């Protein structure tokens, strides 16, 4: 019943959008050099004023207001969230499961999880990732604010450039959530695009509200955070992944949108314009990257057009090239690519050093030491042998003989002592081996170290293996010989 | 018509009786599937198939001591491509409801809980090399183990085919 109501709401929203001619091509001609005017005009969810959640009207200034914005909807298992593509999933035989507070497809009726995995590695798949949370952070203080909550070199990001990052906890340096930060605009009023995990929606809201309140208290320049939304609906987010992804996206560009896919590198976002079946064109922010280790793009799409764009990509590319893929394939693909899943491979108690993610902290940030938990993290970066603190555990990849090891399985040393735990694991469809990641005692983390995992009472051989398990196929600049 | 039915039932009966002696179990099950007609005289020889709420099946001929177990078609479908099967060891004594092995697909691992107590007398080694047999033929070639049962009365608590079908339909809603 609620699905029907939501649907009716979506239809009304589309009607409004069409009535106002938001996607009239001419209307967008002026908006193109900028990001997406509709995104910029969306309501801020909270701002820096007194730590209060405040609504700022399209007039871009900070106002003290009693017009408190209610928190965004937080979903529960009983009342799961639905993305704009919910009905499309059902039409394609999506088997819906609870994930991150949402009802999401784990697989579709046309392909098994294994088949969908191979399909993505050989052709292309679309994943609905609209359950993830998209924010804009803008204002003269945006760089300072982001650097006050993450260890990333936000200042040094070029327009369009993105980085994997983490919202860190003060003192402990624990990872409150992992995220992607992209600079959309430079200049005196920079604009950043932040994507966080659906499962952390509630706690990220609390974290960011608190962080921006204390940021403001220190008389920093203004920074505003808002959800990327329009008409009260979040922007859709889909991931087009696989070797045919670039070809499919290119075929769907509007006539006047020229993009060189050979020099559009991994980890870079562009505003591109897609041709819609209606003849109109639609600007979307497209980030080259994803969560599969394949070439691909994540497209942030106006809520009224998410269904149309997804449907049109599927139809225009055809069933021989492009299929929908669900969480099942997404999990085995990301594991082969050695990528972490928050809540499993990362949590509040793991630091970037333990998680083998120290590479997200550039030299400049190690030097300024001004991110949450910097003292702890910098001490961990220095091994005990050099007077540092080091870490007691490290995230590693494992290849396991015999049975697949799943989350929670104990890792043991040659003497049978428990020295760690598996945090993710599955039989790898591409490698035909059992792969896993987990945390092991420092010192036992070197590639080639032979350990054991205890599965249903039997100890199976586990070898520490470098990740990614399967080499990534990103488009990167050619390195000079 | 009635004559034809009687003839085929008698033929099926002969096949079944022969197969009980000479055929492998999977062949037997195939034959039985091909010859669904059953006559009164056969009923005492016909296997009784029961199901658990955990989606295992158990096939048992009243009067025999050995039962065959496996996972249901419904469970095999829900699991997806099975890539690994962990079988119990022979002579293992098992208690009803206890985990005696596992079936793993890309996305999940499921324990096999034995529907009956007894001693494992045979395991389907084919599954070690060809785990996909569970998907292809979960209720015949993909059988899991044979168990010499202690107490046939344990079977009475399980669901018959009709009740299990209803159970899975309710679970899918």
UniProtKB/TrEMBL annotation, chain A:
<protein>
    <recommendedName>
        <fullName>Aminomethyltransferase</fullName>
        <ecNumber>2.1.2.10</ecNumber>
    </recommendedName>
</protein>
<dbReference type="GO" id="GO:0005739">
    <property type="term" value="C:mitochondrion"/>
</dbReference>
<keyword id="KW-0809">Transit peptide</keyword>
<dbReference type="GO" id="GO:0008483">
    <property type="term" value="F:transaminase activity"/>
</dbReference>
<keyword id="KW-0032">Aminotransferase</keyword>
<dbReference type="InterPro" id="IPR006223">
    <property type="entry name" value="GcvT"/>
</dbReference>
<feature type="binding site">
    <location>
        <position position="298"/>
    </location>
    <ligand>
        <name>substrate</name>
    </ligand>
</feature>
<comment type="function">
    <text>The glycine cleavage system catalyzes the degradation of glycine.</text>
</comment>
<dbReference type="InterPro" id="IPR006222">
    <property type="entry name" value="GCVT_N"/>
</dbReference>
<dbReference type="InterPro" id="IPR013977">
    <property type="entry name" value="GcvT_C"/>
</dbReference>
<dbReference type="Pfam" id="PF01571">
    <property type="entry name" value="GCV_T"/>
</dbReference>
<dbReference type="Pfam" id="PF08669">
    <property type="entry name" value="GCV_T_C"/>
</dbReference>
<dbReference type="InterPro" id="IPR028896">
    <property type="entry name" value="GcvT/YgfZ/DmdA"/>
</dbReference>
<dbReference type="GO" id="GO:0005960">
    <property type="term" value="C:glycine cleavage complex"/>
</dbReference>
<dbReference type="GO" id="GO:0006546">
    <property type="term" value="P:glycine catabolic process"/>
</dbReference>
<feature type="domain" description="Aminomethyltransferase C-terminal">
    <location>
        <begin position="393"/>
        <end position="469"/>
    </location>
</feature>
<feature type="domain" description="GCVT N-terminal">
    <location>
        <begin position="85"/>
        <end position="363"/>
    </location>
</feature>
<keyword id="KW-0496">Mitochondrion</keyword>
<keyword id="KW-0808">Transferase</keyword>
<comment type="similarity">
    <text>Belongs to the GcvT family.</text>
</comment>
<dbReference type="GO" id="GO:0004047">
    <property type="term" value="F:aminomethyltransferase activity"/>
</dbReference>
<dbReference type="InterPro" id="IPR029043">
    <property type="entry name" value="GcvT/YgfZ_C"/>
</dbReference>
TrEMBL record, chain B:
<comment type="function">
    <text>The H protein shuttles the methylamine group of glycine from the P protein to the T protein.</text>
</comment>
<dbReference type="InterPro" id="IPR002930">
    <property type="entry name" value="GCV_H"/>
</dbReference>
<dbReference type="GO" id="GO:0005739">
    <property type="term" value="C:mitochondrion"/>
</dbReference>
<dbReference type="GO" id="GO:0009249">
    <property type="term" value="P:protein lipoylation"/>
</dbReference>
<dbReference type="InterPro" id="IPR017453">
    <property type="entry name" value="GCV_H_sub"/>
</dbReference>
<comment type="similarity">
    <text>Belongs to the GcvH family.</text>
</comment>
<dbReference type="InterPro" id="IPR011053">
    <property type="entry name" value="Single_hybrid_motif"/>
</dbReference>
<dbReference type="GO" id="GO:0019464">
    <property type="term" value="P:glycine decarboxylation via glycine cleavage system"/>
</dbReference>
<feature type="domain" description="Lipoyl-binding">
    <location>
        <begin position="66"/>
        <end position="148"/>
    </location>
</feature>
<dbReference type="Pfam" id="PF01597">
    <property type="entry name" value="GCV_H"/>
</dbReference>
<keyword id="KW-0496">Mitochondrion</keyword>
<protein>
    <recommendedName>
        <fullName>Glycine cleavage system H protein</fullName>
    </recommendedName>
</protein>
<dbReference type="GO" id="GO:0005960">
    <property type="term" value="C:glycine cleavage complex"/>
</dbReference>
<dbReference type="InterPro" id="IPR033753">
    <property type="entry name" value="GCV_H/Fam206"/>
</dbReference>
<dbReference type="InterPro" id="IPR000089">
    <property type="entry name" value="Biotin_lipoyl"/>
</dbReference>
<dbReference type="InterPro" id="IPR003016">
    <property type="entry name" value="2-oxoA_DH_lipoyl-BS"/>
</dbReference>
<comment type="subunit">
    <text>The glycine cleavage system is composed of four proteins: P, T, L and H.</text>
</comment>
<keyword id="KW-0450">Lipoyl</keyword>
<keyword id="KW-0809">Transit peptide</keyword>
<feature type="modified residue" description="N6-lipoyllysine">
    <location>
        <position position="107"/>
    </location>
</feature>
């Amino acid at each position: 019943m609620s699905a029907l109501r939501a649907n009716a709401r979506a239809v009304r929203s589309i009607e409004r959008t069409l009535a106002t001619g938001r996607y009239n091509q001419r209307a967008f001609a002026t908006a193109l050099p900028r990001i997406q005017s509709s995104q910029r005009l969306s309501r801020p969810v909270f701002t820096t004023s007194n730590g209060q959640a405040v609504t700022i009207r399209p007039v871009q200034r900070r106002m003290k207001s009693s017009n408190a914005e209610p928190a965004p909807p937080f979903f529960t298992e009983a009342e799961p969230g639905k993305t704009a593509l919910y009905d499309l999933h059902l039409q394609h035989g999506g088997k819906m499961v609870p994930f991150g507070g949402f009802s999401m497809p784990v697989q579709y009726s046309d392909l098994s999880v294994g088949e969908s995995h191979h399909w993505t590695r050989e052709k292309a798949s679309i994943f609905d990732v609209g359950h993830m949370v998209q924010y804009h952070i803008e204002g003269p203080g945006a760089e300072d604010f982001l650097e006050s909550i993450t260890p990333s070199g936000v200042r040094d990001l070029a327009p369009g450039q993105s980085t994997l990052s983490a919202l860190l906890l003060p003192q402990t340096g624990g990872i409150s959530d992992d995220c992607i930060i992209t600079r959309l605009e430079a200049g005196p009023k920079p604009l950043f695009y932040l994507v966080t995990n659906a499962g952390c929606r509630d706690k990220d809201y609390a974290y960011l509200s608190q962080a921006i309140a204390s940021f403001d208290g220190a008389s920093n320049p203004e920074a505003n955070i808002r959800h990327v939304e329009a008409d009260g609906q979040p922007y859709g987010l889909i991931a087009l992944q696989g070797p045919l992804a670039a070809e499919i996206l290119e075929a769907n560009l509007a006539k006047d949108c020229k993009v060189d896919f050979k020099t559009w590198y991994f980890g870079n976002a562009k505003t591109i314009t897609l041709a819609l079946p209606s003849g109109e064109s639609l600007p979307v922010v497209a980030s080259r990257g994803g969560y599969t280790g394949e070439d691909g793009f994540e497209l942030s799409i106006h809520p009224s057009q998410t269904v149309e764009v997804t449907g049109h990509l599927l139809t225009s590319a055809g069933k021989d090239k492009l299929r929908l893929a669900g969480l099942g394939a997404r999990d085995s693909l990301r594991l082969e690519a050695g990528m972490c899943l928050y809540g499993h491979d990362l949590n509040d108690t793991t630091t970037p050093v333990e998680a083998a993610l120290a590479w997200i902290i550039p030299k400049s940030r190690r030097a300024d030491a001004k991110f949450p938990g910097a003292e702890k993290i910098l001490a961990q970066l220095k091994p005990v042998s050099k007077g540092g603190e080091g870490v007691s555990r490290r995230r590693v990849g494992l290849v396991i003989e015999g049975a697949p090891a799943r989350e929670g399985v104990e890792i043991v040393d040659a003497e049978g002592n428990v020295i760690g735990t598996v945090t993710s694991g599955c039989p790898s469809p591409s490698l035909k081996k059992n792969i896993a990641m987990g945390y092991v005692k420092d010192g036992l983390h070197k590639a080639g170290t032979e350990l054991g995992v205890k599965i249903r009472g039997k100890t199976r051989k586990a070898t520490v293996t470098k990740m990614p398990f399967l080499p990534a196929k990103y488009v990167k600049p050619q390195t000079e010989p | 018509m009635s004559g034809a039915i009687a003839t085929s039932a008698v033929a099926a009966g002969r096949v079944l009786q022969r197969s009980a002696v000479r055929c492998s179990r999977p062949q037997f099950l195939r034959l039985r599937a091909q010859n669904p007609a059953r006559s009164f005289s056969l009923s005492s020889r016909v296997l009784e198939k029961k199901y658990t709420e955990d989606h295992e099946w158990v096939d048992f001929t009243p009067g025999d001591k050995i039962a065959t177990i496996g996972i249901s078609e419904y469970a095999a479908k829900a699991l997806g491509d099975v890539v690994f099967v962990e079988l119990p060891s022979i002579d293992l004594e098992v208690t009803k409801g206890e985990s005696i092995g596992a079936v793993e697909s890309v996305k999940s691992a499921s324990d096999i809980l034995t529907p009956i107590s007894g001693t494992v007398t045979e395991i389907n080694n084919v599954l070690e090399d060809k785990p996909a047999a569970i998907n292809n033929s979960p209720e015949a070639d993909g059988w899991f183990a044979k168990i010499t049962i202690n107490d046939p009365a344990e079977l009475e608590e399980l669901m018959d085919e009709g009740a299990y079908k209803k159970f899975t339909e309710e679970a899918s809603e």
